[in-house]
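Q: Structure for this?
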Amino acid sequence: MSYMAKFRLWRGPDGTGALKDYDVEVLEGEVVLDVIHRIQAEQDTDLAVRWNCKAGKCGSCSVEVNGRPRLMCMTRMNTFDETETITVTPLRAFPVIRDLVTDVSFNYEKAREVPAFKGPEGLKPGEYRMQQVDVERSQEFRKCIECFLCTNTCHAVRDHEENKKVFAGPRVLMRVTELDMHPLDTEDRQKLAQDELGLGYCNITKCCTEVCPEHIKITDNALIPLKERVADVKYDPIRWLGSKIRVRGQE
Amino acid sequence: MSDIERYSFDVVVIGAGGAGLRAAIAAREAGKTVAVMSKSLFGKAHTVMAEGGIAASMANVNKNDGWSVHFRDTMRGGKFLNQYRMAELHAKEAPERVWELETYGALFDRTPDGKISQRNFGGHEYPRLAHVGDRTGLEMIRTLQQKIVQLQQKDKKELGDYEAGIRVFAECSVTEIFMHGEGDDRRAAGVLAYWRPSGAFVAIDAPAVVIATGGIGKSFKVTSNSWEYTGDGHAMAMIVGGALINMEFVQFHPTGMVWPPSVKGLLVTESVRGDGGVLTNSEGRRFMFDYIPDVFKAQYAKTEEEADRWYTDPDNNKRPPELLPRDEVARAINSEVKAGRGSPHGGVFLDVSKRLPADVIKAKLPSMWHQFKELADVDITLEPMEVGPTCHYVMGGVEVDADTQELIGVKGVYAAGEAGGGLHGSNRLGGNSLSDLLVFGRRAGIYAAEYVSDAKNAGKATPLTDAEIAAASAWALEPFDASRDENPFTIQAELQMIMNDLVGIIRDGDEMRDALAKIDALKPRIARAKASGGREYNPGWHLALDLPKQILVSECIARAALTREESRGGHTRNDFAKMDPEWRKVNLVCSLKDGKLDVQKKALPSIPKELIELFDPVELSKYMTTEELNAVGMA
């Protein structure tokens, strides 16, 4: 039931490094993470790999397998040909710490710029009332396991390091939509999404949706609706007129 | 000491799961500065794996529920070995803690009238678990993570720095808790940790330390727990002079995946049974009807017809035996497999496909559907799952004061969540873990904050010395010594096999003595565990540092299990198969005496009259001796 596979792993610190070849046993039903662990236990105990739950629930083991952004724990070995060399490299959009581990702190820093949930004044704990149909929209986005594969894949970040200053990436923008669609949230983050988080950099190529291991429809259900909401406010002719009159009045 | 980063905080919380984050929130809201130490990235802690829900008697679905019913269920589930005061506080405070999560932004599933929906679970008399599909743990950790961010945003506004009040040290593992002073003056002083990415050390002065490090499940081969569960906090509590109780009680969740081998042990949520799933053997029989123990006969259905009616009419029918407490179901599955009535891969069948329509299964159990589809090629809307017991949770934990969570006999050190002991007695009910984290995480944070004010006023907040930091960091670098020659991964795998095979779900005196001998033989090898390579993100080094702690808690489990000569909850012995009321009166307490493990019996506090009267005397007589019943006037 087992066979010897050929693996090629990125090894090295701080962006310096090279691919290293391994021959390693693969057993029935295994996923890529099992094989990486076998290499670690039997060949290179200092092989750096980040993981936690090994069940697709924590989003820690994000890497690129043969160039595709994947969770190692959810990538089954039987999806590859037994003779194929499997190349595992760290996420490309983030700085490499060592081997397969990247520094994803960018995502946490951007997340901190999004004002938190603000519930209605005067409602005490236990008094919140919401309908299932209304919470479901935001619940889809709360399935996010923060694997950051979406942001890693988004070409606005992946191919343009300089954009990181002005573009927060799909994960964080989806968080804005999630709060915007929360039935009881009272904060307005639409201007922030456009002006500070770079919503306009998204040109809806849906690459993020394609790699999401939770199958969240990031582009269709989060980013496009957020763009529409922002556009409603920004290009609403009555609001536009109102803002002009007010500006003139203040002058 | 120039290469060691130095910080000073009021409270250090070790662990960034549900209990740790809730403690950090409470301590910050009490005005203290907090360091949160996390072995993983922020928001990845093991809490994320919890599936079913948070138990709290909000009575949103059945108006008959209330704290006293929840208290009763918790004591029954734990076979009356619980610290009653913790069970009481837990039952009383859980609803407020859940409602509070909504004010932080949590989005639970709803009832038709817009309240938080509650689902059925094993051992709970009424539908009681607040949930979000089968990903409640993710909702809880994300909500707490985002609440921390909210507090950081507030600090940024008021103090100019996100990290002025709470700093999360992500991927930063604590190796040691420092203590200062002697005798009555002995107290917490701070911690030493290392950044996993760089290998650099961090020393933090802090008058209060909260241990919220979760459990010990990585001591067993077949487990639902992640690499982090090496019992760090349990061990550090003993090292600073604290004690562990109930370590013989390890929960084997009845339903883990059994195939393919790489996912063996992965959790299959109890919600599958709560929502109607049934367990069958290879003969197609719903075997749980054959395994209802005497103590639970009054509460469970005797026929399939009655059990099935219960889902729609719970007030007039008894519950299906698939929803017995976890220890009972795990033992039953084990017996069926041993009797040759198992499934092809050594489990039993769990079937929800014939009980619910496919779209309902996908809505209520989305991650189970996903998990089986992607990892086992099984479509649970069409066919049964194969499941078997997996190590899931340790009831045992640090002995603490029930109200404050402070370690008994150790000033300034607190423990909460899975690392804390006592609430669950000999067996934990599903859903009582997430509520435990919230209730006692918050209490630990509040009382740690209070203690810090007192300690500072009394001049007892003393900074760490260079000498103690140097000694602790030198110890942590020992695995790099050229004289070391053992592969830490090999040692850990051997330890996991020993515990799995010899101190597992069914235990035997001779096997446990064998386990203890083997554990002793591993100790000198652990002292030679070697780290190859450098200090940057080196998992071999990290494991070499975890192993001494992991083997200490493993030894506690084996020693306590060998000492307790009865079967109760998460401790089942072939050679002492019966539950013994005499043993209900005592906890086994593990501590270090001159560096050696010492196990002592300690009497449980007796349950006060107003709480004992919540039970029927006939039920109590199954657990307690006649003298005890006489003493409370319940004979």
